[in-house]
Amino acid sequence: MSTNFPVEEIENIQIGCEHCRSLLPFNFSFAFQPIVNLRRQTIFGYEALVRGTNGEPALTILDQVNDDNRYAFDQACRVTAIQLASKLKLDKMISINFLPNAVYQPEHCIQSTLQAAEKYQFPIEKIMFEITESEQVVDPKHLTKIFKYYQSQGFVTAIDDFGSGYAGLNLLTKFIPNIMKLDMELVRDVDKDPVKQIINRNLIATCNQLKIAVLAEGIETLEEAQFYQDLGVYLMQGYYFAKPGFECLPEVSYDKYEPILDYGFA
Fold first, then answer.
1. How far is 4 from 172, CA to CA, in rounded Å?
2. What is the torsion angle, in degrees rounded to the nearest 10, for the CA atoms of residue 27, residue 57, residue 256 and residue 211?
3. In angstroms, rounded to a whole number, what is the distance separating the alpha carbons of residues 140 and 191?
4. What is the pLDDT of residues 125-147, one digit of tens each?
5. Which uninterrupted H or E stretch holds 140?
């Protein structure tokens, strides 16, 4: 089910600003990784992760993105992810990463997303946009404008890789996202690292006060999952639950939930 996005399809959907109209010289597809809701023992949604058309790693695609095609790539990612999610009959949240430096005018650049959601009958309230904190943002005020506009349109917003990059806590003074995804480096071996535990506890406490849902990303062991559960974090993602599935929606078996649930919530 490789999504080789036809030129006519892009032309039919892509009606954003003029910077988004150039065509891409390469094709790509997506893998999907589940995000779980432990409290409900269900899948909250899936993150769309860019891949080559034969499942090649993300870098084989991202290395081809440059200043000349960044805007078109960002737009095509949104449309392709929604198109493929619809084909897979996804009825949960879809999380799409976007490039903040590839959005000139939010009200125009979002049009392709809105049109794709309508065409493929995918509810806007089930689309989550992630901004990775590890990418340097040229204009933080512009990023704030993008986020606020997306929220006003009904999209869910998230900061990805929080604690790894350029914005840090300063970003929270300007914009409150719906979800905060903790950086995988903060998650890795957190049950064995007292320093990481202190940092995590304070970040989670801050998010709780600001009414931001915390998502622990990169969970690979039961012990890591239990640490976050003990702090009341119920949204999790990582290889412990399921690896990304190329052009498919991996399920999470109950035996992944059971040991964590037996441990108990805070």
1. 38
2. -70
3. 34
4. 999 999 865 456 556 777 788 88
5. helix 140-152
Dihedral in degrees, nearest 10, Cα atoms 201, 162, 216, 198: -20
Q: What is the mean pLDDT of residues 72-93?
A: 94
Q: What is the pLDDT of residue 262?
A: 73
* Nearest residue to 98 via CA among 113, 88, 86: 113
| 40 close to 90: Cβ distance less than 8 angstroms | no
Mark out the alpha helices in 46-152 (DSSP H runs): 58-62, 70-87, 106-109, 111-119, 140-152
Could you tell me which residues come within 8 angstroms of residue 5 by beta carbon, excluding any fewer than 6 positions away? 24, 27, 76, 79, 80
pTM score of the predicted model: 0.88
236-255 confidence digits (pLDDT tens): 999 999 999 999 999 999 88
Q: In this structure, what token pair is assigned to residue 240?
A: 């412990």
Q: Which of 170, 169, 131, 132 is nearest to 150 (CA)?
A: 131
Q: Which helix (H) or strand (E) holds 200?
A: helix 194-209
107, 72 Cβ separation under 8 angstroms: no
What Rg value do the Cα atoms of the chain yield, rounded?
A: 18
- In one letter, which amino acid is 224? E
Domains of the chain: 7-170+246-263 (3.20.20.450)
